[in-house]
Specification:
The protein has 290 residues and is mostly helical. It has 2 domains: 151 residues, CHAD domain, CATH 1.40.20.10; 122 residues, CHAD domain (Alpha solenoid), CATH 1.40.20.10. 81% of the residues lie in helices and 0% in strands. The mean pLDDT is 94.
C-alpha cells in the first residue's frame, strides 16, 4: 500500500497488535518460567501500549482508550515492581565486581537481599495473573488488537494526519530539555527520559507512514533515553544502598559505601554525557522532517 493510501487506522491497529503479541508471547514464561527477559518484554509491551493510546488519542474512542489505559497501568505496575528489582539486583551484582575481593563478597551478601524482594514481587505478579480481572483484561486487549474503536479522524491519510502527532511529542521533549537549566535535578532528568521514550515510541509506531525519517528520530531519542536511563538506575541504586547501609554490619556497610561511590560516578558520567547525546538528537537531520 502506498503512503498516500495508508490510513491512520492501519497504523494504530498495527501498533496495538504488535504490543499485544509481545505481551502474549511472554505470558507463559511469566507464569511458569523465571527468565527476566520475559518480565522486561511484557513490561515494555504494556508501556508501549499506554504510550500509543496517548499518541493516538485523537483517533480512538476516548472512553474505550481510558478503560484500556487503566487496565494496562494495573498490569504494568506489577510487572514494574519485579523488573525494577531485577534491574537493580543485576546492576549491583555487576558493579560489585569492581571492588576488591573482600569488599565485593561483602557487597554481594547484601545484594542477595534483593532476591527475596524479587521473589515476593514475582509472587504478587502471579497472584494478579490468577485474578478474574486479568482474564477480562486479556480478552479486552485481544479485542483491542483485532478491532480498535476508532474515531472518524482515523480515516485520514497517515502521512498527513500523523506528522503533527509526532511533532507534538518532539516539541514536548525539546521543551523539557530546554527547561532543565544548568544543574537539573535527578527528577527533571528522569522526566526528560520519559518524554524521550514517548517520542521514540511515537516515531516507531509511525514508521510505516514515514520510513527512514521516523527511524532516525527513533534512534536518536532512544540514545537520549538510554543515557538518562543509566543516570536514573545509578540514582536509584545509590538510594537503596544508602538506606540499606543502616541495616548492615560494619564490614558490609563499608563495602556498600564503596559500591555507592561507583554508582555516584556512573550517575555523574551519564550527566556529563547527556548534553552531547542531546545535541546529536536535536539536529536538522533528525527533526527537519517534522
Amino acid at each position: 500500500m502506498s503512503d498516500d493510501k495508508l490510513r491512520v487506522s492501519a497504523i494504530v491497529r498495527h501498533a496495538i497488535a504488535q504490543s499485544h503479541e509481545r505481551l502474549i508471547a511472554h505470558e507463559s514464561d511469566l507464569r511458569v518460567g523465571d527468565d527476566p527477559e520475559s518480565v522486561h518484554q511484557a513490561r515494555v509491551a504494556t508501556r508501549r501500549l499506554r504510550s500509543d493510546l496517548g499518541t493516538f488519542e485523537h483517533f480512538v474512542d476516548s472512553e474505550w482508550a481510558s478503560e484500556l489505559h487503566a487496565d494496562l497501568r494495573w498490569i504494568g505496575s506489577e510487572l514494574g515492581l519485579v523488573r525494577d528489582i531485577e534491574v537493580q539486583r543485576d546492576r549491583l551484582r555487576s558493579h560489585a565486581g569492581r571492588l576488591p575481593a573482600p569488599e565485593a563478597e561483602s557487597a554481594r551478601r547484601v545484594i542477595r537481599r534483593l532476591d527475596a524482594d524479587r521473589a515476593a514481587a514475582k509472587a504478587d505478579l502471579l497472584a494478579m495473573m490468577r485474578e478474574p480481572r486479568y482474564e477480562n483484561v486479556r480478552a479486552d486487549l485481544a479485542a483491542a488488537a483485532a478491532n480498535p474503536k476508532f474515531t472518524s479522524a482515523a480515516r485520514a491519510p497517515a502521512s498527513v494526519a500523523l506528522k503533527p502527532v509526532v511533532q507534538h511529542r518532539w516539541k514536548k521533549l525539546r521543551r523539557a530539555v530546554r527547561d532543565l537549566g544548568d544543574n537539573p535535578s535527578d527528577e527533571a532528568l528522569h522526566a526528560v527520559r520519559r518524554r524521550a521514550k514517548q517520542c521514540r515510541y511515537a516515531a516507531e509506531a509511525t514508521e510505516p507512514a514515514f520510513g527512514k525519517p521516523a527511524r532516525r528520530l527513533a534512534r536518536a531519542t532512544a540514545a537520549v533515553q538510554d543515557v538518562l536511563g543509566e543516570h536514573h538506575d545509578a540514582v536509584v541504586a545509590v538510594a537503596w544502598l544508602t538506606k540499606t547501609a543502616h541495616e548492615c554490619s560494619p564490614a558490609e556497610a563499608y563495602a556498600i559505601g564503596m559500591l555507592a561511590q561507583v554508582e555516584r560516578e556512573a550517575a555523574t558520567a551519564a550527566r556529563t554525557e547527556f548534553p552531547d547525546v542531546w545535541r546529536g538528537a536535536d539536529t536538522e537531520r533528525v527533526r527537519g522532517w517534522l
